[in-house]
Amino acid sequence: MKPVKVGVLGLGTVGGGTVNVLKRNAIEIARRAGREIVITRASAKDLTKARICDTQGIQLTSNPLDIINDPDIDIIVELIGGTSVKDLVLQALGNGKHVVTANKSLLALHGNEIFAKASEHGVMVAFEAAVAGGIPVIKAIREGLSGNRIEWLAGIINGTGNFILTEMRDKGRDFNDVLAEAQALGYAEADPTFDVEGIDAGHKLTILASIAFGMPLQFDKVYTEGITQITRLDVEYAEQLGYRIKHLGIARKTPEGIELRVHPTLIPERRLIANVDGVMNAVVIKGDAAGPSLYYGAGAGADPTASSVVADVIDVVRALTSDPENRVPHLAFQADALVDIPVLSADEFKTAYYLRLSAEDKPGVLADVTKILADHQISIEAIIQKQPLAGETVVPIILLTQVTREKEMNAAIAKIEALQTVTGKVNRIRLETLG
Ligand code: NDP
Ligand code: HSE
Fold first, then answer.
1. Residue 246 catalytic?
2. What is d(CA 323, CA 15) in angstroms, rounded to the nearest whole number?
3. Same domain (yes/no): 322, 356
4. pLDDT tens across 63-117, in order?
5. From ligand 2's centre to the CA of 137, what distance in Å?
6. Can you give the CATH number for the domain in which 413 is found?
């Protein structure tokens, strides 16, 4: 059989890694796919730049359209990134080419249109690398867990953010210094605010929720909070209470609708996911039949992400001869079986909380705070008063609450902050036991 011809758009971290893995493991890959897979063309913006891969034997261009419009190319691998490649991808699909991509922002924002176009033209869009780098979590949900009703999933799904949090906690390093290292290592997005403000994790959560619950992609309904507000003090207090602070994406099905949220979260330190450090990612998925299962691996970087890209290329090659109706659906559920399940507003989230406030050290202060919480039906799990910090007269008070609705907590926090005896803002971090 003649080799399958692949065109790669983008030769940066992931594109370079993909060329390397496809070349390095060509024999194994051909044995698995049943055909030789060859990258014959690739594009990059600056053709004079040094590459992490050997481009010998690959025809290079700075115009991706040269590849998309080349009738010899069977599969387009889009590794440029960003949403401005939407038209390129639509054109590739319109030309009858299968597309493999690692581009979560593109899919989270325009995936519904892209998958519809792919179905119209009987071609595939594969995107394992778009979520959690080298972890085959899309395949796990879409195929391995397809007999389950998924109840919830929670994951550390941004490698850069987890790398920053880990280095800050373990080595006391400065935020910007670690971010610069993550950029140099090729982990960060072109715009690193996507990593640190939770937008990248929001894109990934959009995709995970869609394939877990069978709903259209709706990034605009995801609540996102980043890691920039996490303080060293909260990390220390959380650890004294037996918790770790991790940046989680959480999707949960409730009787009222779906919670889609990305934010720093206290997790009991005994949970495996609380011990996922550095650039590693992990996703816990709770299915009604399988129970909880955990998927762990590198969340970013050239080779790990290339591992997922190449697996997708092999999947596409294996499916080239199958009828489009017999392929695994893009979003796990048949396209006409997707249901527009309501997504809850942040006010309706139900979660437990860690609260830190600074108060005057005098009788009655704690009673005022606990009365406000009781008035909002918020039960307290633990309360600790710490020694004043050096040079301060106010004392830090740490509270852990039981699960409550977010709007009750917002109202209670507003009243606590209005107390004469409380100074400044209440620092609130959500807490999940993931039990
Ligand atoms: P890079 O910035 O390293 O690479 C982007 C590549 O696209 C570069 O080769 C660049 O060319 C090329 N490019 C940029 N603009 C154009 C253009 N207009 N026309 C042609 N080529 C262009 O990005 P990454 O490899 O890190 O990311 C690629 C995709 O993979 C993104 O969607 C990202 O979100 C995703 N991803 C990244 C991961 C990672 O660990 N980095 C992990 C998982 C997903 P040149 O090199 O000449 O500048
Ligand atoms: N910037 C992303 C991260 C790349 O750090 O997780 C992997 O999607």
1. no
2. 29
3. no
4. 999 999 999 999 999 999 999 999 999 999 999 999 999 999 999 999 999 999 9
5. 15
6. 3.30.70.260
Give the per-residue pLDDT at 393. 87
User: Counting ligands in written order, which one lies closest to the CA of residue 182?
Assistant: 2
* Closest to 121 measured CA to CA, from 310, 330, 318, 315: 330
Structure tokens, 31: 């044995």
- The span from the CA of 23 to the CA of 308, in Å, is 15
User: Between the CA of residue 382 and those of 38, 349, 408, what are the distances in Å?
Assistant: 60, 21, 18
Say if residues 51 and 42 touch (Cβ distance below 8 Å): no
Q: Is residue 410 part of a domain?
A: yes
Considering the domain architecture, whether residues 143 and 129 belong to the same structural domain is answered as: no
What gap in Å lies between CA 362 and CA 423, rounded to an integer?
13
- Segment (H or E) for 260: strand 257-268
Q: What's the rounded Cα separation, in Å, for the pair 281 and 230? A: 19
- Locate 15 and state its tokens: 């594109």
Choosing from 104, 204, 246, 253, which is the catalytic residue? Answer: 204
pLDDT tens across 274-322, in order? 999 999 999 999 999 999 999 999 999 999 999 999 999 999 999 988 8
Q: How close is the Cα of 45 to the center of ligand 1, in Å? A: 10
Q: How far is the CA of 225 from the centre of ligand 1 (A)?
A: 25
Q: What is the mean pLDDT of each run of 10 residues along the chain (435 residues)?
A: 96 98 98 97 98 97 98 98 98 98 98 98 98 98 98 98 96 95 98 98 98 98 96 94 97 98 98 98 98 98 98 96 89 95 98 97 93 98 90 93 98 98 97 95
Shared domain for 257 and 278, answered yes or no, is yes
CB 53 within 8 A of CB 11: yes
Q: Which atom of ligand 2 is nearest to the CA of 189?
A: 1
Dihedrals phi, psi of 92, to nearest 5 degrees: -60, -45
What residues have CB less than 8 Å from 155, skipping those under 6 apart?
A: 132, 137, 204, 205, 208, 248, 249, 273, 281, 282, 283, 284
In a domain, 66, yes or no: yes
Residue 144, judged by CB atoms within 10 A of its CB (0-12, 13-18, 19+), counts as middle
Residues with CB under 6 A from ligand 1: 10-15, 43-46, 49, 64, 79-81, 102-103, 129, 133, 186-187, 189-190, 300-301, 305
Q: Domain residues for 56?
A: 4-134+302-337
What is the phi-psi region of residue 253: left when phi exceeds 0, alpha when psi lies from -120 to 50, beta otherwise?
beta
Q: Which ligand is nearest to the CA of 179?
A: 2
Residues 6+ apart with CB under 8 A from 340: 215, 216
